[in-house]
Amino acid sequence: MAGFVELARAAQAARSSRPDVQLALATLIQVDGSSYRQPGARLLVDAEGRVLAGAVSGGCLEGDVAARAAEVCASGRALRLMYDLRADLETIWGFGARCDGIAHLLLEPLTDWRWMAQAEAVRARRHGGAVITVVDARGSGATCALLDGDATSGRWHVLHDTARLVSTSELGALAQTVRRTGQALLHAASDELSVFVEPLVPAVALHCVGAGRGAEAFARIAATLGWHVTILDHRPAMLDGLHVPDGVVLRQVRQLDAVQQAMAELPHDERTAVALLSHIYDVDIAWLTATLPLSLGYVGILGSRSRGAQLMEQATLMLAERGIPVGARHRHKVYAPIGLDLGGETPASIALAAVAEIEAVIHSRPAGFLRERQSPIHTRTPTPDMLSRKAATLLPDQPLRCDLPEYPTD
Asked: Model pTM?
């Protein structure tokens, strides 16, 4: 999905350094077949043909998209582009791509970049949200609305008047669907209008318990993926001795009876992963009993299979004493020993194997070799029918509120 932080910062920098050069934003709204990038990928360009941030392909389309920006900026109207990557692109760009798919993009003038910073702020709140783009039959369109929160109770912000061409109930049902699937979709609202809806899926939150050197490797790899990483330990000296990337949070939890409160204050949703790395039995059991009842996406335990089984047995007994049963659903999210079977034994190799396992689990993938995958490697789960009459009637049809607050500028 779109890296709104990167795009917003690049747009702000471009405005500051070249205020007279207009900007344009390309959004990948549909893919037929296989493609390196998936719907929701974005590319920021300017009217002088510069590629400023983002990507909509593996590198074969960006130059041509940037070359079209002058036309879009001069006309003030968006342009829908279609690239058939199955064909030999030698005659167009001087090389062959052969990506086995068709990419559909909307290239629109970007008159105000600040909505992207607001979208990232919504994503960071982890309570739902979506970005709405409307495309008309003539190939024009605009990114026109931002949902902050759940479709039934969140706030709609109008970015462009084209948002008013689609009913609130229809937009709400679409937003509910993309939140459930985690995938962007392009929906034909009528013969004249299509709606592209992208969920503002929060970044993976990784909580590493234990500030050993292995935690540094976890933090470096996960931070590269854009995850939000927190390292927790009861020993301040261990935390102070770590060398981690900017943005990684180091947090001291002084006593074991404070673990539950600490977990409550951290993200603890289906896109949260916990890695128990302390190798201290009492610490691991305290965190395991705190995390098992929660609806997390992943819990990994460093150590042997027998040690993991022992921890699970004791945690199950402790929770049962509190009246909290541990069933198959709770056990299914626990991975012990932690990590994929990659063969490495160094702290960095173990961290790589564990982060790769978390990535596979979050995306519901088996983590096998791509050469042995029978279906296309970029195939996504089909989107269910989001606008059944029953779903559409759940939401009242109300005017969209044009109450977008001030955007952050940094």
From this structure: 0.84
